[in-house]
Amino acid sequence: MSYQDITYVTANHVATITINRPEKRNAFREETLDELIEAFREAEADSAIGVIVLTGAGDKAFCSGGDIAWEHASTPAGAHQLARRTTMLAMIIRGCGKPVIARVHGFAVGGGNELQLLCDLTVATEDSKFGQSGPKMGSVPIWWGTQLLPRLVGEKRAREVVMLCKQYTAQEALDMDWINRVVPADQLDDAVAEWCDTLLGMSPQALRVAKLSLNFESDQLWPSVLHGYQMISFIHGTEEFHEGTSAFLEKRPADFSRFR
């Protein structure tokens, strides 16, 4: 398949999927999600591939979440379309049976943080930043953010991350068990390659069973994700939602006071 928003490269039994929108800090739109789904399907179906690496082009961002200009034009119907795509992407990342490593250089915020949460392992550079921005934008990180973060960092800390919309350094994220490993930027590729080599030396079927078994408890959180999608569709397209997206696009603080 020919890709526009991503690149797909295979070498040494590793498939590397790169969100290739550096000018947008690798924010995703409908086309990006469709291509990510297809690329993961391709990697899953390829028996020569043992490990999948997900990353973002450039050194500014792994992924900054949804493209705000695209989301600004969203309606409740558009929110449902987004839900279908992100649901499918999450299902294939978690269900493909092959280890998925998030290679993070730069921002992994909003939907970008949720995307790295869906991966099995995360290696980040020292200058990377993590966080959620939902309420600041008139939205909510119900795409596995509110479900997985409490299991990793604890209930109180997850509330801080989601509600206060702060950003955290890679070292802070590591200390909270949010991610797995932090390395200097010039060692990122070597660190990812090291883990790929280690995983490729393991029994692929044992890794498949281990991944699915490790997912068992959190798979039971799917109803929370699906309910969240339904509820958030009542926010998308409202004046309150557009205040958040307009403020971002206009580079000003949002004023949600009239919606209390």
From TrEMBL:
CDD domains: crotonase-like (cd06558). SUPFAM superfamilies: ClpP/crotonase. One of its GO terms (molecular function) is 1,4-dihydroxy-2-naphthoyl-CoA synthase activity. Belongs to the enoyl-CoA hydratase/isomerase family. InterPro entries: ClpP/crotonase-like_dom_sf, Enoyl-CoA_hyd/isom_CS, Enoyl-CoA_hydra/iso, Enoyl-CoA_hydra_C. GO terms for cellular component: cytosol. This is 1,4-dihydroxy-6-naphthoate synthase. Pfam families: ECH_1. PROSITE patterns: ENOYL_COA_HYDRATASE. GO terms for biological process: menaquinone biosynthetic process.
